[in-house]
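Anyone? Bumping this.
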Amino acid sequence: MKSRIYLDHAATTPLLEHARAAMLEGFAAWANPSSPHAAGREARALLEDARARIAAALDWDGQVILTSGASEALAIAIGRSTGSGVLAGATEHDAVLRHVPAAQRLAVDAGGHVLLPDGVAPGALVAVQQVNSETGVIQPLDAIAELVHAADAHLLADCSQSAGKLPLPRSADMIALSAHKLGGPIGIGALLVRDLGLLRPSGGQEQGYRAGTEAMPLARGFAAALEAPRGWLADVADWRAALDSAIVKAGGEVVAGGVPRLCTIGSYRMPGVSAQAQLIRLDMAGIAVSAGSACSSGSLRTSHVLAAMGWDESAASQVIRVSMGHDTRATDIDAFLAQWQAMATGTR
Amino acid sequence: MIYLDYQATTALAPEVAAAMTAVMDHYGNPNSAHRIGRIAAADVELARDRIMAALGRSDGRLVFTSGATEALNIAILGAARTAPASRRRVVTLATEHAAVRDTVLSLRHEGFEPVILPVGRDGLVDLDVAEAAIDERAALLAVMQVNNEIGVIQPVAQLGAIARRCGVPVICDAVQGFGRLPVPEADMIAITAHKIHGPKGVGALWLRDGLDIPPLMHGGGQEDGLRPGTLSPMLCAGFGVAAQLAAERREADIAHVETLWARARDLFAEWRVNGSTEQRYHGNLNIRRTGLDAARLISTLRTVALSLGSACASGTGRPSHVLKAIGLKDEEARGALRLGFGRYTTVEELEQAAALINEAAATQRVAA
């Protein structure tokens, strides 16, 4: 069977069979969707069909701007915002935080929930993720949207981790997402926009909001991935709950254990053992997990997410992330837990 | 369908499709430290090496992007934003692709002065004009190697020599020339996969050693912090194989293009060629007949795919800025067609297409 166990689906998740088939089909219609000839129009029709299906699958009736991924979607939303100033939660992904000066970051409580200040300036853009990539913490976005809108500000929701797993926050004004976190291809994402007046156009394709030849096969893969059945989520929810309990029983700590979290992500601290040591041991045992997000995992710096939640550096350096996906099996979780327990007891 | 629109995009090579299909199952994130991530990273690095080899470079660095538009945006905005305050002029040619032109013009909002050099009737920049315009006040020179509409090859080497004397960095849009012509000397070079039978959604920017420019986007710090976003092993592998194929087949591809060009010149002997015929990549034939309504002609041709100008501007109804820049009157530009051919075009296809195009043109003339 599987020679290696992959529990790092929040970094990227294997391509779904539906998406793979859709892309292979899409490769055959390789013309430029902007070409006016029949071949180009065929590619355009396939692209627009994918766009409509992406919107339908996400239950979104606003605009869909296709991008190269969530980083670009967020860069457009923030960089080309017609609003005045941007605020962002302190636990947002770097793709958001690097655009936002420290003074404009919103604190979070110990459970990772954003604390919205009383006086959000009218016209501001407030960026909050639906699900944190490291801890799985779910932000109460509908409540946040209500407060943001009451202040005449706008909400940008980063739904990179949640899209395809949770219903999207329909009250958000803009939503960024990425195909490869939900079983689609790497290299495509979208910015959903309620009202294009929220953005300054840049010229080029995508109604003038994103330049560059559209990658139709990737868009087809994106749509197909979103339409795939999600029955596996129920199993994963059970396994994550069981894993949480077993980890606690074995002397570990569940990060944000008391708040609602996405069922595919578990974040665990093994007291006294560095995350780096855990990762090496697990990798040697054929199990792929990560410390925090993949993007920063090479650097092994302390997680800004845990720091914002009030964790001290030494405890935070002992946390790893386990994330499950559509091809995860109960035996994968068992194998991980056995390794984790052996490590935890072996060091006492 | 006879496809004669190689400057808009090219067919995915079967070798590329096979390589991408094989890598589709390497699902790791190239930034992940574990073994599955390192397998994905190995795909990306192998592709990077292949593209560097096709570029003929062992120095500098290659940064993957979503395509040439993004690569050019990073290069132009980055070079301008790191230029000394005394250098506020951004120099480019009148016939550049919108990805360069619009980006250069957008720098007005940051206090820069765009300087747009004219081209002659042959589509080429006058080196004396360039020499007079490029001096110590310039922040950058952006010039394309092969024009996407009329195929003319700009004297990038000579322009680069002028720029270097004044300490001006040169950014070259090598999208149409990469894999076909020798890569010109420049400080930054933008390329894309889908013009060389690779996939859409991936391109690259090559940067000379020591160049340090800021990123446009922020995120996970990929590509040395210059271009964030998870890289697709599949797209990178496709680009790598496309570049390798282009390098391996360069002589055969060029010989084939020359055969097609010679035949096409005969088949379209009654048409005028737009732009230089000598200083030109011969996989592009942009031709015109006065009085012809080329848009109408294209719409009546159901089995031939060709275009009026760039795909990006098609359908806007705007006359081509390139044809305007080479001095064509509006009615001349309205009668212009762009034919692009290459690796997978056969002489028979060209002949069939020419018969259909010439017949449609004659019908229009009779009707008029």
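Late reply, but here is one note on the structure posted above: The CA atoms of residues 19 and 84 of chain A lie 39 Å apart.
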